[in-house]
């Protein structure tokens, strides 16, 4: 009886040790009627980070250059929207840090400034990667990843704020830089 008890205990111990040895993710097989597609330009290198705003877009056209133009335009619009949204957020956080209440006219002025910076900096856009595919039907599909250095956005925003008489009256450059750089640091986490 003692031998049987020890044998059962030994099997239980071995079973427990092997089941706890390493946590592996279970491989989930796709249903047989589905095929996983690889999306071009979708890795971490194509996402925004602390140094760059990045956007990836694609477009399809029967004309190769039209597919490229459409994807580039969509990508630029996405970058501009992301830059504008971040600048507006930085300005809002800056106003909170200054404990300043801005009326609608000043808030609107800040939004215009954010839009201006976003539009001006689009000439700084760099192509990270691009891919062109020809589909079975003869159409062209163009993928592109563009980026803008965040440092140039920060510098342009500060320059515009310093040169704006309406905003410069109460503008604290160091406080604004702190708030802006905190926003950039959010990407490092």
Give the tags:
189 residues; elongated; 6 helices; 3-stranded antiparallel sheet; 3 strands; alpha+beta
Descriptive notes:
- It is elongated, with a radius of gyration of 27 Å.
- It has helices at 2-19, 64-97, 104-120, 150-163, 165-168, 173-185, and strands spanning 52-61, 126-134, 140-149.
- The protein has six helices and three strands; from the N terminus they run H-E-H-H-E-E-H-H-H.
- It is an alpha+beta fold and 189 residues long.
- It is 53% helix and 15% strand.
- Helix 3 (104-120) packs across helix 4.
- The N and C termini lie far apart (59 Å).
- Mean pLDDT is 78; it is low at 1-22.
- The longest helix has 34 residues, at 64-97.
Quick gist of this model?
With 189 residues, the protein is α+β, with helices and mostly antiparallel strands.
């Amino acid at each position: 009886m003692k031998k049987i008890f020890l044998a059962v205990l030994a099997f239980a111990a071995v079973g427990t040790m092997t089941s706890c040895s390493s946590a592996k993710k279970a491989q989930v097989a796709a249903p047989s009627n589905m095929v996983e597609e690889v999306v071009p330009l979708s890795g971490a290198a194509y996402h925004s980070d602390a140094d760059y705003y990045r956007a990836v877009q694609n477009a399809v056209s029967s004309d190769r250059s039209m597919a490229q133009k459409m994807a580039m335009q969509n990508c630029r619009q996405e970058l501009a929207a992301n830059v504008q949204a971040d600048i507006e957020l930085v300005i809002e956080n800056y106003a909170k840090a200054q404990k300043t209440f801005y009326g609608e006219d000043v808030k609107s002025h800040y939004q215009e400034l954010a839009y201006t910076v976003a539009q001006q900096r689009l000439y700084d856009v760099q192509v990270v990667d691009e891919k062109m595919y020809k589909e079975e039907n003869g159409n062209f599909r163009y993928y592109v990843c563009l980026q803008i250095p965040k440092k140039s956005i920060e510098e342009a925003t500060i320059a515009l704020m310093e040169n704006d008489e309406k905003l410069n009256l109460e503008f604290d450059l160091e406080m604004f830089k702190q708030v802006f750089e905190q926003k950039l640091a959010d990407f490092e986490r």
